[in-house]
Amino acid sequence: MTSNHSCSEAMPKIFVATLALLLVVACGQGGSLLTYVPPPTPVIPTVENPLQTRKLPIPAGDYWSVDWFPDGRILVTRYPNDLPLQFLVWEKDAWRLLDLEEDPRCTIRTGYYAPAILPDGRLGLVKECLIKAAVDYLQADNEHYLVAYDWESDRLELLVAEQLPDIGAGSFGWNPDMTRGVQSGGSLFRTIYWLTRQHAEPMTVTVGTGNKNWSLADNYMAAILDHESNIRTGITGTPAWSPDGRFIAFFASPDAIGRSGQSRLMGEYRLYLMDVETLQPQAMLDGLYFPGGLQWSPDSRRLLFNGQMGQPRAAGVWIFTPQTQELTVVDYGYKGGGTWSPDGQSLAILRGCDEACQELAENDQPLILANEETLDVSKPKEICTPRTCPPEFDILRYVWEVVIYDVSELVANNGSINDSP
């Protein structure tokens, strides 16, 4: 990582690659039908265009995701030393821990994960109810439900009446009227499946072309019945339903076909776009590795994600505009995820400090730690070093910061999949 990604106030660089591809938009039954030529691995030139940034002070911690809600709240997911996860909320220029209710049925533990912004502005979560412990976590007696947290009433509501399928519950999204959703799950046979307000259902959709295609329903059944029975399928995940309700975007890896074990996760991924009327996924962008954090802009024009891109594999946070096939790097380096502001003019991104910042911790230099009770970084509880800090301070693998990027000029003239080319 270069000095452009330090913990100083140096501006990041923006790199833009326009892929030389044609987009054909034709009218068909049930709405517009998109036909795309899958693009080659992009070549990324180095064109300077710095973005304005500002930082939100955040307590020391190991963070994974960040979400920016319509009412202005920003939520980050934090990994403490032991589960369950914690959620910090930025509101009124301060952080607070989100206190989610304990379920008395969950005699071992109640946990929440996979936060998402619901169309009605509430916080969506997967609720894990651990009832019976086991030596092997996979054999533990646990149940998973999809719930919505209301910011005003401080109450949780079931989004799906029945338990989620026992294949692991990951990221999810809903259509605008919240009558139908989509969720990922399946571990090494990761897939996406439908949600209704009553239950989950397999998605009978085929992804890929030629001899590199598979059914999402096949993975659903393989994950439920036998995790070792099927290596003839790829993997699919991170679904994102556009705010206008017309498209579902997701990542999928045809490279996983024929592989077994962890190698199924290591191949190349593609970004797909699926019209909810035709249910025909179209490959939009390839050359992706370890992608995640897929999120639509509020106007349904652009997709934000993080991961590695092209050859050599450049890690960063990216914006992809389907209409113009424009791929933009917001910032290079390993990132924990990003989110759009409610007006689509800014991004909040979890950014790790560069080598200099990491070296500070490794060389046992003093670290100022936030007051854990108040989460107030302006009033440190103690100054110590990695070797002398008490265990409860949780000196972690990464030192993260939340950075706000102004992308108003960047997105001002980009196209929309709702516009004619």
Structure characterization notes:
The chain has three helices and 30 strands. It has helices at residues 216-225, 355-362, 408-411; strands at 15-18, 23-28, 31-36, 53-56, 62-68, 74-79, 86-91, 94-97, 109-117, 123-132, 141-150, 155-158, 172-174, 181-185, 191-195, 200-201, 206-209, 212-215, 235-241, 247-253, 269-275, 281-296, 303-309, 314-321, 326-332, 335-340, 346-352, 367-369, 382-384, 400-406. Residues 1-47, 354-372, 392-398 and 415-421 have low confidence and may be disordered. The strands form eight sheets. It has an eight-stranded antiparallel sheet, with no helix packed on it. Strands 4-30-27-26 form a four-stranded antiparallel sheet, with no helix packed on it. The protein has a four-stranded antiparallel sheet with strand order 5-6-7-8, with no helix packed on it. 5% of the residues lie in helices and 44% in strands. The chain has one domain: TolB, C-terminal domain (Neuraminidase, 6 Propeller).
Major beta sheet, strand line-up = 1-25-24-23-22-21-20-19
Distance between the termini: 38 Å
The structural domain count equals 1
CATH top level? Answer: Mainly Beta
Notable characteristics:
mainly beta, single chain, about 425 residues, 4-stranded antiparallel sheet, Neuraminidase
Topology:
Layout: E1 15-18, E2 23-28, E3 31-36, E4 53-56, E5 62-68, E6 74-79, E7 86-91, E8 94-97, E9 109-117, E10 123-132, E11 141-150, E12 155-158, E13 172-174, E14 181-185, E15 191-195, E16 200-201, E17 206-209, E18 212-215, H1 216-225, E19 235-241, E20 247-253, E21 269-275, E22 281-296, E23 303-309, E24 314-321, E25 326-332, E26 335-340, E27 346-352, H2 355-362, E28 367-369, E29 382-384, E30 400-406, H3 408-411
Antiparallel strand pairs: 1-25, 2-3, 4-30, 5-6, 6-7, 7-8, 9-10, 10-11, 11-12, 13-14, 14-15, 15-16, 17-18, 19-20, 20-21, 21-22, 22-23, 23-24, 24-25, 26-27, 27-30, 28-29
